[in-house]
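Researcher: Next sequence.
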Amino acid sequence: MSERIDEIESRLRDLGAAQSPVREDGPAEGDPGEPGRAPAISDEPVVEASDDGAEPLVDAEAPVAPQHAVGDLRVPDGYSVLEGGVDGRRAVAVVVSRFNGEITNRLLERALDELQEVGVAREAILVMPVPGAFELPLAAMALAKTRRYACVVALGCVIRGDTPHFEYVASEAASGLQLAALETGVPVSFGVLTVDTREQAEERIDRAGDAVRTALEMADVFSQLRAQAAGGLH
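Model: Next structure:
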């Protein structure tokens, strides 16, 4: 058996030498490898010169930073449009995670400020604290099922750590909150920060205000839709 292993290793060495012939003049400039050894693979994107001497061509597989398209949606004229607004004459439930409290306290404060700004009365707001982001969907589902609230705003913060815990909690929170909305028909907005660092979370506190406006807009458009459907029955 050992003779067979030695024979295989010898063939592999011969094959490697055939694919990477030894340079008689030694390693090329900037090549830290030994003569005859293939150059190290660089992490830099491959750049090739074009045949006509124009600008070099960058490797198409080089990573590209994600981009967001800016601009407002415009519906062409001639179509019926059903669009919600931010109506402060509604009852709103806010479910907020206590975990990462230094961040979620600020998210809650921002959400309550936004609710006050759009005209939602203090007595029309219910705040339900829960232990963590994982518990947000269950609380949102329970609140939505009461039918006392036009919408639910879910607030929380999940910061990436050294274990897969982040992926599980963030994924379950997102899918669970969506399920709560789908099963009840009550809008549930996603104001949960899923970030790598605390600094990133602090930069996104205004997401709570966006979540408030999203929830109210969806509640308003659903109200209009029900009114239209009821009017069509007469």
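Model: The chain has six helices and six strands. The longest helix spans residues 207-232.
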